[in-house]
Amino acid sequence: MELPNKGFNIIEIIMTIAIVALLSWIIFTKTDNTRAKSRDIERVNNIKYIESVLQKYFNDKKNYPATLDPELLTPTYAKEIPKDPSTKNNYLYSVNFTGKTKRCLSYHIGATLEDTSLDSDLFKNDADLGAQPDSCPGSNPDFDGTDPVYDISN
């Protein structure tokens, strides 16, 4: 008497593994894109927060700080100065001369976003300011704020 075949053949096992691998890859890439967009939104919110800190500093000192040095800005103007959520580096920041008076009354601040698609809603309201030639003493050289950099300037 012959027993019926109750196991799986090799083709069925390979197909099952391939389907599971494909589904895992799809889920992983979707999750990774969602995380990148979430970090980009955090970067934009951080830039807007730093902008408000700079405005408080300006209202008090009548100029902008040369750097985003926490010793200058905390705790008087901010609890902390946020950093990029992925790299933990400072955001791009430069203070530039304004007009013929050569006073340091203009700032440029930005963050490089992970979602580099130009149709991103985050790029619709940024400055896209190119690097300015006249950075103030003690400030970082200005940076190119064209996309994929989200930047604001006053």
From TrEMBL:
<protein>
    <recommendedName>
        <fullName>Type II secretion system protein GspG C-terminal domain-containing protein</fullName>
    </recommendedName>
</protein>
<feature type="region of interest" description="Disordered">
    <location>
        <begin position="128"/>
        <end position="154"/>
    </location>
</feature>
<dbReference type="InterPro" id="IPR012902">
    <property type="entry name" value="N_methyl_site"/>
</dbReference>
<dbReference type="InterPro" id="IPR045584">
    <property type="entry name" value="Pilin-like"/>
</dbReference>
<keyword id="KW-0472">Membrane</keyword>
<keyword id="KW-0812">Transmembrane</keyword>
<feature type="transmembrane region" description="Helical">
    <location>
        <begin position="6"/>
        <end position="28"/>
    </location>
</feature>
<keyword id="KW-1133">Transmembrane helix</keyword>
